[in-house]
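task queued by scheduler; priority normal; single chain, no ligands, no partner chains; default sampling; output format set to structure tokens
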Amino acid sequence: MQYCLPDELFNRVPYPTREADREFTTLDGLYREIAYKLPGAEELAVRKEVWHSFVDFCTRMGAYMERIEANSSQVGLTPTQDSCKFLRVVGAEEWTDEDGGKFVPVSTTDFSIMSGEGGVLYAVFKSSPQKCAVLISERPSFDDQTKKSGGTSWEPNAPKYMIDRYGECIAHGALARIYAMRGDGQMARMHATAYNNDLNRLAFGLITAGMRKHLLIDVEDWLVSTGGTAANGNG
């Protein structure tokens, strides 16, 4: 089904259940982790590339997830954060009154994805349950405009579990981008390769082999498009 994870992984994608994992945090930790490797770099440029790497990672992996419930037989597939975009459904549940009432997983054949007013997508459950829930993967907007409360500084945030689990991979992506912009092809290529290796390793259990053609970046093409002269070495 379009907009859904393939059946062999549907309902099997791990989702954080601890309340602490569902908290949001800034990207300051990632910034500090790489800033010392980039003497003389402008702070905003580094922070922006950390953010762009985070967005790219979410788009490729689908690891940024949210659970949405509805007290009806259909649920909107719209992320609760305005800055996020829906990617696909990775799990679904419907409410049953057996054993005192609980959510039980259903398969992709038990609901349909339909478009409503304004092009909004909905998951419509065929058995008309009292309640339903979906687990969706999403990505942030590429140009995030998040501001500090009461201020004007740019400070995007992300789920804590994303930074804890995938921070090293995201950092490699950011460093590859920055070194490419600097024209340092050797360092850019090294971090781009590490980014790909981490994507490949972390993808097990999140996407199928058939989806991997969309997972990894073509390092040489990416260096040309990102850094121009970086692909030729050190500028």
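post-processing summary
- Residues 160-182 form the longest helix (23 residues).
- The mean pLDDT is 87.
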